[in-house]
Amino acid sequence: MYCITDEQIEYILNDIRRNGVEMEDLQYNLLDHICCILEQELKETDDFERLYHQTVTRFYKHNLREIEEETINLLTFKNYYGMKKVLITSGCISVAAFVAGSLFKYMYWPGAGILVTLGIGSFSLLFLPLLFIIKAREVKTTSDKAVIAVASVVGILFSLAILFIVMHWPGANVMLFSAIGIAAFILLPAYFFTGIRRPETKLNTIIMSIILVGVIGLQFSIVRLRPSGSQLRIRMDTYAQNEALLKRMQSGFVFGKMASEINATSNDLKALVLQRSIGYTSVPENYADLNIHLNEGNLGTEFDNQGAGVQLLHRLRQSVVAYNASVADHDLHIPLDKTVLQTDDAQAGKMYTNVSFLNSIVQLQMYVAIAETSRTK
Amino acid sequence: MIFSSELIKGTLKTIVLKLLADNNKMYGYEITQKVKELTADRIQLSEGALYPTLHALEEDGLVTTEIEYIGKRVRKYYRLSSDGKTKSDERISELADFMDTMKLLLNIQPKTA
What we know:
The structure holds two protein chains of two kinds. Chain A has 13 helices and no strands. Chain A has helices spanning 6-18, 24-41, 48-57, 65-76, 80-107, 112-138, 142-166, 172-196, 202-225, 229-250, 257-278, 308-326, 354-376. The longest helix of chain A is centred in the first third of the chain and has 28 residues, at 80-107. Chain B has a single domain, classed as Orthogonal Bundle (Arc Repressor Mutant, subunit A). Chain B contains five helices and three strands. In chain B, a hairpin with a 2-residue loop joins strand 2 (63-70) and strand 3. The chains are: A mainly alpha, B alpha+beta. Chains A and B meet through helix 1, helix 2 and helix 4 of A and helix 3, helix 4 and strand 3 of B.
């Protein structure tokens, strides 16, 4: 039997490493295997290096690294078929939950928020990442993998941005802009230039790129229509002006008992909504310096079912109805129609955003102020 | 006749598990030689398929390993774990069923001696 020297072992190990096998386990497995074969087949007079290379070429089709790649594939993707199942299931459930959630939201049924959050959440954080892993495995080149990676990031950012917009969570615009920016300046060029080079994908690449440009353009125009910083400031100013106007109307005389009650309940309601919207129970004098903005959003859980907000709305409506009954002059009646108090069950309030809600309440207080001024004259 | 690698691919894990079940501990080269010997050279396991499979079996906890130093070389022995023993029996009976089914499907008559 041929005896392999330490130098030859070193030579083989170096060659294995140089050929891109990085897993130490695998290096030693291959080394021992090659040594065993050589010990069996080599004769003292043979050329070691030539026979070694002849032996090692039997191990692979193109290069030695194949063995390591196959190993990694087996270790990483042993659950490949399981992953495909999870992909399809999660995709179906996400989309179903999202569609159902949108319908619920439209119908003002309870549970809409949870369904939409679950739907878009699992779509962007389970379905899309899985899709990326599986798709990236199907393509061969690094550039194709990179395009798929960027596309996945855009998809995840975009769907999360939609979720944040729907749920009125902060940061939605930043996400949407990032998604559109990455799509326009990274994804589109990368996709276009990798696809256009291959004759078989050329036409599809051009068509898909045109569609992509169109979608990005449409999205951008929607974003542009969303309120900018100045719009946010104007919204806050308008409401603050309404409050200032009310204060002027209320000054200089004492309200009756019923009117005071309406005012107190109104202030409680506004405090509830303001606390959630700006973190204060009333608008601070120096709101502009404090950089406080009135982000348009929903009313929050206090206005669900029998929450504190709903109960306050009930009480306000009763007080207003009682007040109107006590005022003989119809022209001084406080209108209920087209306000947050339009329905008996206080459910209409839920349809209002925080901004419209605050304005509706402050207007109601102005009506009371005018009615009281006229009565006490 | 040497069987194609495609035919062997689906049964490689079963072959390795069975060999380890019968031979206590083995190293890679030994496995290829044993298969050659048992099949009279008709099945020659390729190194490119054997080692990835051995690593996958180790990752799945079906085999345990021990290292032996031979001078500058390191020899890795594979041994069936208790999970591996159960799995080996399962896979062999599954393969036997599969072969019966294939006989039916392909209408293969038993060879007459």
